[in-house]
Amino acid sequence: MRQAGRSLPEYRAAREGTAMLDACLTPSLASEITLQPVRRHDVDAAIFFSDIVVPLKLAGVDVEIKPGVGPVMGSAVRTKDDVARLRDLGPLAPESLAAVSDGVALTVAALGGTPLIGFAGAPFTLAAYLVEGGPSRDHLAARTLMHSDPVTWAELTDWAADVTGAFLRAQVLAGASAAQLFDSWAGSLGLSDYTAHVAPASARALGHIADLGVKKVHFGTGTSELLGAMRDVGADVIGVDYRLHLDEANRRLGGTTPLQGNIDPALLAAPWPVLEAHVRDVVARGSSAPAHVVNLGHGVPPETDPTVLTRIVELVHGL
Ligand code: 1CP
User: Which of the ends of the chain has fewer CB neighbours closer than 10 A, N or C?
Assistant: First the structure.
């Protein structure tokens, strides 16, 4: 999860000379990069190589992914007129998503039974990039707009929900067996802001795949106070970041919801006995939930030794 591929030398070789978004939209390359960690680590599922801003790009937004920075917009979306211009781009037509559908279909065929997880960014996280113009710490401009012009904010997040929902739907229709919605930056919101100004658009995004029968995972960071609200937008599984123990997350969710998580990425660089004890603890705490998908509590740092990841998978399979 989270730019996981960057720790692999074979990823860096495959990406050499190709801009990130071009790589995402080249089906054979996106498929090859998706398969790399499955081959190397023997994980039980793959996550499609793409990015949460791909549907924005396909809708016509001026966005690129700058190396070492992340998604950067040509201009920030700050005013009612800016949002109107965005909405004029219209929804994302299925034919605009051909490169995504083709990449997924190639990948599913090559995986031969190992499931593929499709994903998309949630409307708040996408709006945070659009309004800020790029990565930011506290998403101040986005949260200002939310309160100073709630109508424009709702128009923006509804547009984002439809664009990202179409991206997710294309992946599932092309063969992805589960769908993950990343609201990575929702942790900068309090519960009342989340419920009033964000949850409706997230429900709208997931609504795009409601008829397709795949399980929906919903993940955010710093969202320990939002877990129930994030489930209630229509998720089947809650992804938990590294800040909250899984037994406590399960308690907060009333013992009803499968969990995904939450090995602390910081410990990937710790001595093996420290990391091993942590992984065992994560698995033990996760066993309190109705089901548990083991993964990281956020992304793999690019400098991670990939052999450590292989060793974690072996350990978890043994458990
Ligand atoms: O992990 C994987 O490789 C799977 C594919 C994947 C996924 C699931 C990529 C490829 N991006 C994402 C999701 C994504 N992208 C999220 C949600 C998950 C999370 O919280 O990290 C977010 C917030 C982004 C935005 C983004 N794209 C960032 C973060 C910037 C910030 O604000 O901190 C970055 C660095 C990117 C670029 C990116 N996306 C993916 C890769 C492999 C890369 C790195 C490109 C490179 O340098 O090679």
Answer: C
How far is ligand 1, taken at its centre, from the CA of residue 82, in Å?
A: 25
Burial of 259 (0-12, 13-18, 19+ CB in 10 A): buried
Q: How do residues 102-113 score in pLDDT, each as one tens digit?
A: 999 999 999 999
Instruction: Kindly state if the Cβ of 1 falls inside 6 Å of ligand 1.
Output: yes
| 169 & 245 share domain | no
Residue 108 CB burial class (10 angstroms; 0-12, 13-18, ≥19): buried
Q: What average pLDDT does the chain have?
A: 96
Task: Give, using CA atoms, the residue closest to atom 43 of ligand 1.
Answer: 3
Q: Could you give the 3-state DSSP secondary structure of residue 231?
A: helix
pTM score, whole prediction:
0.97
Q: Is residue 12 part of a domain?
A: yes
Q: Which of 245, 138, 130, 117 is nearest to 182 (CA)?
A: 117
Q: What is the mean pLDDT of residues 161-166?
A: 98
Residue 2 has pLDDT above 60, yes or no: no
169 is catalytic: no
Same domain for 73 and 151: yes
Q: State how many domains the chain has.
A: 2
Same domain, 157 and 264: no
Among 243, 207, 206, smallest CA distance to 226 is for 243
Angle of helix 123-132 relative to helix 199-207, nearest 10 degrees, comes to 120
CA of 71 from ligand 1 middle (Å) equals 9
